[in-house]
Amino acid sequence: MAESVTIRTKRDGQILHADLGGLHLYTQAYEPGDFTYDVPSYAINAFLDRGVLADADGYPSLRKGDESPVTLGYTAYLRDLGDTAVPATYAALPDLLHPYAGGYVASTWISTMSGRSDVFTVTTTLTLDGSAFGEADKSLVFAYVALRGGAAEGDPSTVKVTGTSYAVLPTLV
Fold first, then answer.
1. Residue 144, number of CB atoms within 10 A of its CB
2. Which residues are CB-neighbours of 89 under 8 A, at least 6 positions away?
3. Which end of the chain is more exposed for a tag (fewer CB within 10 A), N or C?
C-alpha cells in the first residue's frame, strides 16, 4: 500500500496517556491540535583526518554518537485542577503533570518505569484517525514519558504540556 494522499489536520489526532499496562488512561479532550514532537535520535560525529572532512574517496568519517531522548508537547484548555474528594476518583491533566500528594494519579497510577526509578513516567500515544478516509488508524507510541507543564490564565485558560520520552525512537503501530 502506498503512502496516504489524505492531508491530516488537527481534527484527526487523539492524545492518550497511560500508566503501566494501560490500567489507567487519560484521553486528552479539548485541545487546539498543536501536538509536536522532536526525534533527535543520536548525535552524528564527524572525525577529521588532519583537518580534512572526507577521505581520499570523498567519504566523510561519520559515526553514531550519544543518543538523545525524544521530546513532545502540546497545549490543552484548562478544565479542572484535580479531584479534591477523599479518596480522589479521577485524574485531571494538572494531576498528571505534577501528581498531587493524595491525588488520583499519585495514589492509583503505576509508573511505566515499574519501580526501576523514582521518576514517574507514562506512555503517551498520538493516534491519527484514518477511518473517515477508509484507512486504518495509525499511532506513534512514546515510551517512558516524564510529563511536565504549567497553566496560564486567559481566555481561554490553558495548560502547556511538555514531555521527555526516554526512548530513542517512538514506535509506529
1. 21
2. 83, 104
3. N
The SS3 call for residue 132 is: helix
Q: What angle do CA 89, 123, 106 make, to 5 degrees?
A: 35
pLDDT digits (tens, 9 = 90+) for 105-121: 999 999 999 989 999 99
Strand partners, 16: 27, 125
Provide the 3-class DSSP secondary structure of residue 10: helix
Q: How confident is the model at residue 7 (pLDDT cuts 50, 70, 90)?
A: confident
Helix (H) or strand (E) holding 108: helix 104-108
CA dist., res. 64 & res. 44, Å (int): 5
Amino acid identity, position 161: V
pTM equals 0.89
State phi, psi for 10 to the nearest 5 degrees: -65, -20
Other C-beta atoms lying within 10 Å of the C-beta of residue 158 = 18
Closest C-alpha among 69, 127, 123, 128 to residue 96: 123
Rounded to 10 degrees, the C-alpha dihedral 78/140/162/99 comes to 70
Whole-angstrom Cα distance, residue 125 to residue 114?
A: 19
Strand ranges (E), 19-110: 25-27, 36-38, 42-46, 62-67, 70-77
